[in-house]
């Protein structure tokens, strides 16, 4: 994940574990409805399509990305060394693959090498790496799970967030529970435990100390932050770069920082009007009521929006000239979604993380915007890549392509956005008298005759013939 503190652990490649669920094969055709309708001139007809892989949300893990589809299933792509893609294999995929056995999902989150889904009934399921207990199931004692396992005791979760090797959930009563690696106190219950000894001991969710009014929670690489009802923010876990934001003394370059466990939540300095938070690997950002954005933590590559004369800050700094609608910090870069649908990024650009075609290097101030993206509805960042959700359910990604995390069928870096294969719908017609065709749009301005309406997605298609009477 990082050149300074990589999440990557090497494990021997295993063969296939299982095949995709049989019901996935059934979903390989698209139905366009109504089928073969007859209408008169001047009437309108609404067409819908089922079987299209239309994304409603996108969330990046460190080296993989997942999309929640309109039909409440999940598709993931990228690194799959611990089965974090959930397709029953340990084979990387540069195009989206279906998460086996997951239906009815309400949300998805990606961690370092694992993934979790939240369901409408407040339960959670996780898959991928498990050697630190990050899947949350004491009965699962294998190093990884290729298919989702239920998080024990979780029935009222309203949000879930994946960290490097730990996971946290926000509950209906405003408390937060965490599980997984706890060597830096990232579970927030006042304890710490060695990184890998003993294995799996932190697989049962524990309640974070003193958090009772949380409205949001976001996990970074080895730390976590919670937004409280009164607009304050509290964080816990690793703090050598000031990623907890509490003003603690930190060591600037060239001396190496000393990791400091903080197993009990501390308050972020000076923030009392926060409305949203999002943690990157070693930094966190907050969106305030007045529309300003503040970040704290690691700044070696300008990810705090400041020229990296200092390599970290333990107090929040304001990002000048930015009024974001949503936050998307990564590892060595930061992105934001703006209110007008554009996405801006700054920080490290050695793999194209800015997405605007800038040359390799470090850019501490936001660029003009990710190329060609003007109508995004969501944005997310992994360790070295970013993605945006666009109208129509398509997804575009940019940055480092290693392991196929951009989802476009390639593993090369992209300094401008590329389209994820097989997500979203494209409608076509062989009669130009059909003025507007979208997945849920109206066919208007029709003249007498016949026209074929076709929907395509991911190499699949379906069509219907519309007869227009005089």
Describe this structure in words.
The model is unreliable at 1-28 and 432-443 (pLDDT under 50). The chain is globular, with a radius of gyration of 23 Å. It has one helix spanning 23-26; strands spanning 31-33, 38-40, 45-46, 48-50, 55-60, 64-69, 74-78, 93-98, 107-110, 114-118, 124-129, 144-150, 157-162, 166-171, 176-180, 206-207, 214-219, 223-228, 233-238, 261-267, 274-279, 283-288, 293-298, 312-318, 324-329, 333-338, 343-348, 362-363, 378-381, 385-389, 395-399, 414-419, 426-429, 442-443, 449-457, 460-469. With 470 residues, it is mainly beta. The strands form ten sheets. A four-stranded mixed beta sheet has the order 2-36-35-33, with no helix packed on it. It has a four-stranded antiparallel beta sheet with strand order 5-6-7-8, with no helix packed on it. The chain folds into two domains: 28-52 and 425-470, Immunoglobulins (Immunoglobulin-like, Sandwich); 55-423, Methylamine Dehydrogenase, Chain H (7 Propeller). Helix content is 1%, strand content 40%.
SSE layout and pairings?
Layout: H1 23-26, E1 31-33, E2 38-40, E3 45-46, E4 48-50, E5 55-60, E6 64-69, E7 74-78, E8 93-98, E9 107-110, E10 114-118, E11 124-129, E12 144-150, E13 157-162, E14 166-171, E15 176-180, E16 206-207, E17 214-219, E18 223-228, E19 233-238, E20 261-267, E21 274-279, E22 283-288, E23 293-298, E24 312-318, E25 324-329, E26 333-338, E27 343-348, E28 362-363, E29 378-381, E30 385-389, E31 395-399, E32 414-419, E33 426-429, E34 442-443, E35 449-457, E36 460-469
Parallel strand pairs: 2-36
Antiparallel strand pairs: 1-4, 3-34, 5-6, 6-7, 7-8, 9-10, 10-11, 11-12, 13-14, 14-15, 15-16, 17-18, 18-19, 19-20, 21-22, 22-23, 23-24, 25-26, 26-27, 27-28, 29-30, 30-31, 31-32, 33-35, 35-36
């Amino acid at each position: 994940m990082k050149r300074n503190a990589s999440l990557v652990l090497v494990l021997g490649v295993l063969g296939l574990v299982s095949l995709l669920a049989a019901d996935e094969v059934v979903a390989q055709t698209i139905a366009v409805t109504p089928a073969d309708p007859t209408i008169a001139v001047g009437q309108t007809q609404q067409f819908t399509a089922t079987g299209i892989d239309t994304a409603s949300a996108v969330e990046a893990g460190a080296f993989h990305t997942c999309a929640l589809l309109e039909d409440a299933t999940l598709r993931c792509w990228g690194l799959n060394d611990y089965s974090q893609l959930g397709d029953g294999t340990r084979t990387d995929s540069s195009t989206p693959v279906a998460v086996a056995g997951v239906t009815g999902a309400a949300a998805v989150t990606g961690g370092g090498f694992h993934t979790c889904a939240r369901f409408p009934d407040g339960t959670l399921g996780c898959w991928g790496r498990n050697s630190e207990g990050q899947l949350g199931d004491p009965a699962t004692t294998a190093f990884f799970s290729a298919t989702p396992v239920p998080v024990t005791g979780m029935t009222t979760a309203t949000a879930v967030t994946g960290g490097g090797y730990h996971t946290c959930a926000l509950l209906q009563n405003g408390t937060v529970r965490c599980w997984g690696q706890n060597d830096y106190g990232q579970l927030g219950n006042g304890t710490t435990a060695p990184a890998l000894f003993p294995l799996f001991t932190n697989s049962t969710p524990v309640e974070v100390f003193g958090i009772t009014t949380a409205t949001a929670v976001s996990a970074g690489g080895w730390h976590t932050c919670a937004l409280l009802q009164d607009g304050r923010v509290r964080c816990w876990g690793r703090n050598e770069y000031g990623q907890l934001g509490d003003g603690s003394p930190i060591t600037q370059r060239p001396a190496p920082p000393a990791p400091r466990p903080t197993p009990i939540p501390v308050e972020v300095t000076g923030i009392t009007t926060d409305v949203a938070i999002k943690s990157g690997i070693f930094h966190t950002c907050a969106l305030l009521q007045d529309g300003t954005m503040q970040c704290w933590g690691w700044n070696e590559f300008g990810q705090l929006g400041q020229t990296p004369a200092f390599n970290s800050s333990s107090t929040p700094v304001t990002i000048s000239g930015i009024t974001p609608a949503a936050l998307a910090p990564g590892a060595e870069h930061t992105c934001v979604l703006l209110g007008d649908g554009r996405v801006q990024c700054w920080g490290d650009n050695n793999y194209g993380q800015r997405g605007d075609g800038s040359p390799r290097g470090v850019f501490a101030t936001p660029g003009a915007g990710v190329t060609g993206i003007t109508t995004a509805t969501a944005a997310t960042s992994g360790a070295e890549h970013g993605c945006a959700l666009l109208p129509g359910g398509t997804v575009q990604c940019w940055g480092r392509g290693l392991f196929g995390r951009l989802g476009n069928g390639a593993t090369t870096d992209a300094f401008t956005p590329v389209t994820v294969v097989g997500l979203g719908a494209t409608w076509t017609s062989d009669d130009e008298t059909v003025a507007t065709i979208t997945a849920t749009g109206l066919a208007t301005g029709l003249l007498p005759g016949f026209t074929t309406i076709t929907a395509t997605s991911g190499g699949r298609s379906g069509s219907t013939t519309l007869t227009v009477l005089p």
